[in-house]
Amino acid sequence: MLRRLYSTILGVPTGKLAKNIADMTTTELLIKAGYVSQPNAGLTHWLPLGLSTIRNIEEIIRKHHDKAGCQEVSLSVMSHQSLWDKTGRWQNDELFKVGDFCLAATAEEEMTQLVQRTADSYKKLPVIAYQIGRKYRNEKRPRGGLLRGREFVMKDAYSFDVDQSSALRSFEKMNQVYYDIFKELNVPFVKANADSGAIGGDLSYEWHFLSESGEDTLLECDACGVVGNVERVRPHLAGGHLADEAEVSYHLTRENDLCLIYYPKGRTVNFKFLNDEDLVELHTDISSEEAVQTYKRSGDSEFRNIVRIMDVGVGPGTLLPDLEVAYSRSRMTTFEGVPLTEAQAGDVCALCEAGKLKSFKGIEVGHTFYLGKRYSEPLDAGFVDSEGRRQHYEMGCYGIGVSRLVAAIAEVTRDTHGLRWPASVAPIQVDIVVAGSYTGDLGTVEKFCSQLDGLRYRVDATEGHLGEKLARSKRLGTPLQVIIGKQYPKIEIELRGLRRDLGKLESEVQQQ
Ligand code: ATP
Ligand code: MG
Ligand code: MG
Ligand code: MG
Predict the structure, then answer these.
(1) Nearest CA among 269, 229, 274, 219 for reference residue 250
(2) Burial of 334 per CB tally in 10 Å (0-12, 13-18, 19+)
(3) Which of 69, 273, 352, 460 has its CA at 20 to 30 Å from residue 317's CA atom?
(4) Going by DSSP bridges, is the β-strand pair 71-72/127-136 parallel, antiparallel, or unpaired?
(5) What pLDDT digit, counting tens, does each position of 186-224 carry?
(6) Other C-beta atoms within 10 Å of 132: how many?
(7) Omega cis (within 30) before 489
(8) Which parts form a coiled-coil structure per UniProt (predicted)?
(9) Beta strand segments in 16-74, E
């Protein structure tokens, strides 16, 4: 409960207000308003108001996970190379490494190993474990600080089941948890099919806030209403200048992997595949458009690895775009049958074949995956079934960008006056602004406030013009202002937040 005078909140400015709010990026606004500070690109120091905001979001996330029977844990941030070697992810460019350890970018490996230690029988399954903590990814372009950090706060959950149908039930349960969380946050969101063929697919969903500043392009069918992310297949290749003869290295991380390789018209491309050591290559066919490799892992059935080759019609020396390794992609179990052409706005929906696709931008705030045995097999993690046979877990994983949410909520709700938090996450829900015209004593104000139990409020009884104090409160994004002036006990109320989530707050305050 914040019950402080203005000047006592670390980081919150007390002097004259900057005028150019509308021109500021949301990160600049959060910094100027004293929520966070950025020591370096992609890093964040949390100040009291920012910390309170992120904790409010965490509490909502926690409440819904606990209600669904998920168990909270907190794993070490450091993780040993030996585990990541087994799943083929140690070479990922995004990992920060400290000797033989990496700083956790995600926790499939560690969580699977942890659960394996206790959930060794079908009687102990299903298990869904989650944590809320810091993650580390060496993002090439840490953008807007909180939206894309090198260090950021993620909620990551993992489900472990005995078979596929049970795993799909856990997956659906977690999608319901996500729906409930985003509903309570009270910011418009969509659930989009991710990494799916055409606009269909049901193994991975992304949860987006709609925003022009979003990095993802989403397509929605105007007839069946299905939403999908156009980013279905991202090349797993770093850009750079093309040499006379381009040599392409490609790290195979999973079955049926698929990547694009750009090559200059009329030039030869030499393929160099870096594969898991325990994979046995059976044969490779390279045509001008496709390279299909067949592999076998000891004891495993055969699988194919498909590489599409794209002719970009460029010559040696051309600067190719820097193509990020799409981290989330390496969690998918299969890409087989994914068409390479993007669905575009205006096209007929491939799913219902009736509607047209329209496009809009989104900020990815969450992701739910059905994983199958992608991690349990290489880590040899599993349980003994009812007939005494050992089986590998069927898994799912579920992420929410908690620190990204702070900036994403701010981004979609802010206006020209400043931030505009939904009451559910606002660090201060009510500002009690004492006007200069108020002739009573502060004890009376305190008494008034003591009745606002359960609300996060703050009293501003500092010197200064009422208009300026209100403007400050609005800039900080406080949803409701209560003005105590000369007519007290008659009070004035100003609504800053979105009316639909303030009804209860307003009536509670007015009843006092
Ligand atoms: P993006 O496409 O934005 O790089 P991602 O698909 O790589 O995200 P996931 O692996 O799906 O991310 O991680 C789960 C969630 O964590 C994402 O939905 C996103 O909200 C959040 N997240 C991922 N990377 C970052 C980051 N660098 N900074 C802040 N939040 C992040
Ligand atoms: Mg990423
Ligand atoms: Mg993702
Ligand atoms: Mg993504």
Answers:
(1) 274
(2) middle
(3) 273
(4) parallel
(5) 999 999 988 533 333 448 899 999 999 898 889 888 888
(6) 21
(7) yes
(8) 488-512
(9) 36-37, 45-46, 71-72
Given ligand 1 and candidates 132, 206, 231, 328, which is best to mutate, with the most ligand atoms within 8 Å of its CB? 328
Question: Whose C-alpha lies nearest to ligand 1, atom 31?
Answer: 401
CA-proximal residue: ligand 1, atom 16 (nearest) = 401
Cα separation, 499 vs 180, in Å, equals: 20
Ligand of minimum distance to the alpha carbon of 93? 2
Predicted confidence (pLDDT) at residue 432 exceeds the cutoff of 60? yes
Which residues are registered as beta bridge partners of 483?
Answer: 433, 492
- d(Cα 250, Cα 307) in Å, to the nearest integer? 9
* Confidence check: pLDDT of 80 > 90: yes
Counting other chains too, the contacts that 346-352 makes at CB distance below 8 Å and 24 or more residues apart are 349/198, 349/199, 349/221, 349/223, 349/224, 349/226, 350/198, 350/199, 350/200, 351/198, 351/199, 351/200, 351/221, 351/224, 351/226, 352/221, 352/223, 352/224, 352/226
Angle between helices 402-413 and 48-67 (to 10 degrees): 110
Global pTM value:
0.80
Residue in the structure block whose two tokens are 């946050």: 185
Contact 125, 383 (CB under 8 A): yes
How does DSSP classify residue 499? G
Ligand 2 centre from 363 Cα, in Å?
12
From the CB of 401, is ligand 1 less than 6 Å away?
yes
CA-CA distance, 55 to 317, in Å (whole number)? Answer: 50
pLDDT tens column, 372-429: 998 999 999 999 999 999 999 999 999 999 999 999 999 999 998 899 999 999 999 9
C-alpha 87/C-alpha 106 separation (Å) is 13
Give the separation between CA 178 and CA 363, rounded to whole angstroms: 15
Q: Is the CB of 327 under 6 A from ligand 1?
A: yes
State ipTM.
0.99
Q: Which atom of ligand 1 is nearest to the CA of 331?
A: 10
Task: Report residue 36 CA to chain centroid gap.
Answer: 19
Do residues 267 and 313 touch, judged by C-beta distance below 8 A? no
251 phi, psi to nearest 5 deg: -95, 120
Candidate from 43, 89, 327, 332 with most ligand 1 atoms within 8 A of CB, to mutate: 327
* Contact yes or no for 226/239 (Cβ under 8 A): no
**Tokens linked to 93:** 């460019």
Q: Is 367 in the pocket of ligand 1 (CB under 6 A)?
A: yes
